[in-house]
Design a protein that fits this description.
binds adenosine-5'-diphosphate; globular; 6-stranded mixed beta sheet; 10 strands; 4-stranded antiparallel beta sheet; 8 helices; alpha/beta
């Protein structure tokens, strides 16, 4: 397990548009932190910076108190589940799951065991020989989650992982993600724009808008003591 700290992280894209403006945030060891905010507020950008897939314009990302600036993604103990799953279409489910382990030269035996255990955990044992195109949306989601957790990362980043599923399946998967978290306690940053998802999944919630973290707190705190009208409106507090 690991802590994550964002220290004054700023991101400007070409043209000087400032998407993130001195974002500071602490995520505790084993915590499930939900990052919510309206579409386009920079949630995906922030996750990509933590994963090392994009660079901050200014500021620092720390894992266990140490800066990871300049550390390539592969060497960060971070795995990410993307909104569109980004499965490798030409590979079987088994090879999708094994990919990150191969990349890190995990010995064959251990690799096979990890793939099997992960498939079992997510209930996709029967799908190992299929290609992604032969899977339903919910099955793809499970494979994407499996691919992220198979190498037992200390930090798990999830970018709207349930947004492509129908309402019923979202409820089921929410409960499963919660169960997985309780079993493994992987430090998790979970992005959503769905307020119900945030309230049911988060140990704490961080609300991002206008490039800044508006408020961080437990679901209870945000609901009962929102710091401003934006948070109240977004969380759905009675006003
Ligand atoms: P969210 O995930 O909260 O919907 P994003 O992080 O995807 O938001 O995007 C935040 C803002 O940054 C958007 O206005 C988006 O258009 C812009 N943006 C994202 N990636 C790039 C990029 N590579 N180049 C320029 N602008 C970008
Ligand atoms: Mg996004």
């Amino acid at each position: 397990m690991a802590t994550v700290d964002l220290n004054q992280v700023t991101k400007e894209f070409a043209g000087g548009v400032r998407v993130l403006d001195r974002v500071s945030l602490h995520v505790d060891e084993g915590e499930f932190l939900v990052l919510v905010g309206p579409s386009g507020c920079g949630k995906s950008t922030l996750l990509r910076i933590i994963a090392g897939l994009d660079d901050a314009t200014a500021g620092t990302v720390l894992v266990d108190g140490e800066s990871v600036d300049g550390v390539p993604p592969k060497e960060r103990d971070v795995a990410m589940v993307f909104q569109n799953y980004a499965l490798y279409p030409h590979m079987s489910v088994r090879d999708n799951l094994a990919f990150s382990l191969r990349l890190r030269h995990v010995p064959t035996r251990l690799r096979e065991r990890r793939v099997r255990d992960t498939a079992e955990l997510l209930g996709i044992e029967e799908l190992l020989d299929r290609k992604p195109k032969a899977l339903s949306g919910g099955q793809r989601q499970r494979v994407a989650t499996g691919r992220a957790i198979v190498r037992q990362p200390r930090i798990l980043l999830m970018d709207e992982p349930l947004s492509n599923l129908d309402a019923q399946l979202r409820v089921t998967m929410r409960a499963e993600l919660r169960r997985l978290h309780l079993e493994h306690r992987t430090t998790t940053i979970y992005v959503t724009h769905d307020q119900v998802e945030a309230m049911t999944l988060g140990d704490r919630i961080a609300v991002l808008a206008d490039g800044r973290v508006q408020q961080v707190g437990t679901p209870h705190e945000l609901y009962h003591r929102p710091v401003n009208a934006f948070v109240a409106g977004f969380i759905g507090s009675p006003s």
